[in-house]
Design goal:
single chain, 236 residues, alpha+beta, two-stranded antiparallel sheet
Length: 236
């Protein structure tokens, strides 16, 4: 219950802040970096100075070799340091960085923290309603229509638990996962993860207004992992 209260506090708080900033004619500043202001303030008001930003991912960062930025988490609450209790990733719809591939990568990083630290992991998605609709109705997000049943990456219509398989058991998702795992060949990936939506804020939003969604990210009970290099569909 406490986890759901925090997720709802973030959803409502960030949504209300966006509308306040919009009323102050500052919507031209909105982007993923600007979104960190309300998220950081709400978390700091809840947990004090134990909130850290751009926290190096304790499981995945040591596995990444070569040049390039190491995986990090937007916000964490540690108690005691460096034990993660809360992890939050935030994305801005309409940003070139907010692709379905990057959303899934965020979910994987959050699932790893949820599993290894028994932490509460939260994924937050905000933006103009028309940008959100464009994203959540895209082929990569909902899957191709055909003779087989498809399901979205994240549930946006109901607050029910959704299972996302990362194995090549859905043909329409293999090209997407292959692109995602191209640079993650020897990174352990969970077979599946689960997400639970909280009520978006505002619940009903005109296309020109701003809306916020949030989901908790959970691990499977009988969790297993694979390396993309060991899966023929993902191997490059």
């Amino acid at each position: 219950m406490a986890n759901m209260k925090l997720t709802r506090r973030l959803t409502e708080g960030v949504g209300a802040w966006l509308h306040f900033e919009f009323a102050c004619n500052r919507s031209g500043l909105f982007n993923e970096s600007y979104l960190s202001v309300p998220v950081g303030q709400i978390l700091s008001a809840t947990f004090g100075d134990r909130i850290l930003s751009e926290f190096k991912h304790p499981v995945l960062a040591p596995l990444m070799v070569g040049s390039g930025r190491r995986p990090a988490i937007d916000f964490v609450y540690c108690d005691p340091y460096p034990t993660i209790k809360i992890a939050v990733e935030a994305k801005w719809a309409g940003s070139s960085n907010t692709t379905v591939e990057n959303i899934i990568w965020d979910l994987i990083r959050l699932e790893q923290v949820a599993y290894h630290y028994e932490a509460t992991s939260i994924f937050l998605l905000a933006g103009r309603r028309d940008d959100l609709v464009k994203l959540i109705t895209s082929v990569d997000f909902v899957g191709r229509k055909g003779s087989f049943e498809t399901q979205p990456i994240l549930r946006t219509d109901l607050n029910t638990r959704l299972r996302l398989s990362l194995l090549p058991d859905s043909p329409y998702r293999i090209p997407l996962f292959r692109r995602l795992f191209r640079q993650l060949q020897n990174v352990p990936i969970p077979h599946r993860l689960y997400t639970v939506r909280t009520e978006p804020f505002p619940t009903n939003s005109p296309t020109s207004y701003f809306q916020v969604f949030a989901w908790t990210v959970q691990s499977s009970t009988n969790r297993k992992e694979f390396l993309p290099s060991n899966i023929s569909h993902y191997r490059v």
